[in-house]
Each structure stands twice: as structure tokens, then as C-alpha cells.
Write a structure and sequence with these properties.
10 helices
Length: 322
């Protein structure tokens, strides 16, 4: 069978076939030429470096401007707090420790907290005085407006402490939930041959996205284990920063393994199983409390509608009969 008979009539000409063959040869030559040609990438690299330099310069300028603005804003707080000598004494150290427990370890956290404690009462009290005495929506006498303003000032004084307490409790609860999983990872690391410092650092990197609070504490403990002369001090610092029973038990377990030389992996596996069992018991306890908790909503919301559906037709018939 002749292959030329399968082509269309306009492709059967020898000239057309020669043109197709020539075009294919030309494109083949171009492909080989581009493959063998060494391109000069220096201009493109220079352009990319110039763009990167301009971007970094712009980021540096904006960061410097933001930092200068932030310093200018914080200067007033620093001056007021230092003038009142609020950063001295045991009370200031206790507040700083509580801020660290809540995750606020910056240098200006203590200054901001103390400034809020001394400024918010005046702000809330002044706004309360303008509202209750000036506008007087409840038509209270002047002494009632003064007492309400004093209450608003007390709320402003207590607000930073309440926010600090809530933040610390939320942080502890997040670490309590993620601690068993982190202990499982630490068991795997210790069984793989890593020591406690490297294991904590590895766990810190692995749980940084799912449990940033626990990763923060483990990372700080890993650093302290590396530079403190006594490893016991670093573990005790962890127990002081995170004051809930599961973390204290974890620290005591590590201290006992350091003291008696027992395998860390075995102790951590047992501790992780106990923590998981404790978490399961708390979940079962919450589930067991549900019937008692649901009693009041059932009486208030469900039973009235149920009575209307069941007794309503009989009441309507009785009303029609009479």
C-alpha cells in the first residue's frame, strides 16, 4: 500500500513535502542551537539583586520608622513609671514573673502593665463621671454618680490583672492539652539516641505550629540546659514558669531520672500514658455532668413548648365548648 495515497490532495505535491521537511530541519536546528548555546545570566542576576536590595532597603526603612514611633510612644510610659518608682521592689518582680507566665517576656511588658494599672482608673473614672454625672441617663443624684464613677475606676484598676489572669489560664490550658503529645515525641527522640537538650529542641521545632506555648517553654528550657551550670536549676525554672500539676510531675520525673540514672524514655512513656488517662477521665467527668447541666435549659425552653403542643389542642377544644 502506497503511503502517498493516504495524504490529502494538496499534500501530495513534492514541493509541499520538501517544504515540510525543510521546516522540520530548521526547527531541529534551532532546538539544538538553544540547547548548546551558553546564555549570559549576569544581567538577569543583577536585576534580581537590585530588586532584592531595594526591597530590603524599604523593609529596613519602614522597620526603623516603626521602631522610632514605638520608642516615642513608650517614652511617656517609661518616664511616668520610673518617676513613680514602680519598677522597684518585690511586687514588681512578682508582676514580671506573672507576665512571663502569661507569655509576655518583652522588656516593656512590665512598663505597659504598670502604666495601665495607674492610668486606666483615671480614664474609666473620668468617663464614668462624664456619663453618670454629665449625661445622667438614670436620673441619679450627684452622690450616686460619684459612687458609680468610683466603681468604674475600680473596674479600670482591676482590668489589667483580670486580663493577665485570663491569659495565664488560657496558656496553661493550651499547654496542658498538648503536653501528652509532646511527651510522645520526646520519647521517640530519646529512644533515637538524643539527649534531653537535643530532644527538647527537636520537640520544640515539631510542635511550634500546633502548640506554640509549649514550644516556647521547651525552647527556653533547652537553652537554659545548655548554658546554666546546674541542669536541675533549668528544670526547676520550667516548673516555676508553668505552674500546673502535669508540668510539675514532668519536671519531677526528669529530676529523678537525672539523679538516679534511670532511662528517660521509660519514665516519659509511663508519664504520657498517665496524662492521657487523666485527660480521658476529665472528658468523662464533663460528659457525666451534662445531664445535670441540661436540666435547667430543658425546664426553661423545652418543657413549655412540649406542654403547649400536648395540652394546647385540649385547651382550645374546651374553650370552643364553653
Amino acid at each position: 500500500m502506497n503511503l502517498m495515497s493516504l495524504l490529502p490532495d494538496f499534500l501530495k505535491s513534492e514541493d509541499v513535502i520538501a517544504m515540510i521537511a525543510g521546516g522540520a530541519a530548521f526547527f531541529s536546528f534551532l532546538i539544538v542551537w538553544n540547547a548548546l548555546l551558553v546564555k549570559d545570566t549576569l544581567p538577569d542576576r543583577i536585576k534580581s539583586l537590585e530588586k532584592r536590595r531595594n526591597k530590603l532597603r524599604g523593609d529596613l526603612v519602614s522597620e526603623t520608622r516603626q521602631r522610632s514611633q514605638l520608642i516615642a510612644k513608650e517614652t511617656l510610659m517609661h518616664r511616668i513609671v520610673k518617676k513613680l518608682q514602680l519598677m522597684k521592689g518585690e511586687r514588681a518582680r512578682q508582676i514580671s514573673a506573672n507576665l512571663a507566665k502569661a507569655g509576655w517576656r518583652s522588656k516593656d511588658a512590665l512598663v505597659t502593665y504598670l502604666f495601665a494599672r495607674i492610668s486606666l482608673p483615671f480614664v474609666f473614672g473620668g468617663l464614668g463621671m462624664l456619663y453618670f454625672a454629665g449625661k445622667n441617663p438614670f436620673e441619679w443624684p450627684f452622690i450616686g454618680a460619684v459612687l458609680a464613677s468610683i466603681g468604674a475606676a475600680f473596674v479600670g484598676y482591676s482590668l489589667p490583672a483580670v486580663l493577665l489572669k485570663n491569659q495565664k489560664s488560657k496558656r496553661y490550658e493550651a499547654m496542658r492539652k498538648s503536653l501528652p503529645d509532646a511527651l510522645d515525641l520526646l520519647v521517640i527522640c530519646t529512644e533515637a539516641g538524643l539527649n534531653l537538650d537535643s530532644g527538647l529542641d527537636r520537640v520544640c521545632r515539631e510542635v511550634s505550629n500546633s502548640a506554640p506555648e509549649l514550644a516556647d517553654e521547651f525552647g527556653l528550657t533547652s537553652i537554659e540546659l545548655g548554658f546554666l551550670p546546674d541542669r536541675k536549676e533549668a528544670l526547676l525554672n520550667l516548673a516555676q514558669r508553668v505552674e500546673f500539676q502535669a508540668m510539675v510531675t514532668f519536671v519531677n520525673t526528669l529530676l529523678q531520672t537525672e539523679k538516679y540514672g534511670t532511662p528517660v524514655a521509660v519514665a516519659l512513656r509511663v508519664l504520657s500514658a498517665e496524662m492521657r488517662h487523666e485527660r480521658l477521665m476529665k472528658a468523662e467527668e464533663k460528659a457525666a455532668r451534662l445531664p445535670a447541666i441540661m436540666t435547667v435549659p430543658m425546664i426553661v425552653f423545652i418543657l413549655p413548648s412540649l406542654f403547649i403542643v400536648l395540652i394546647g389542642p385540649a385547651v382550645l377544644r374546651a374553650m370552643d365548648a364553653f
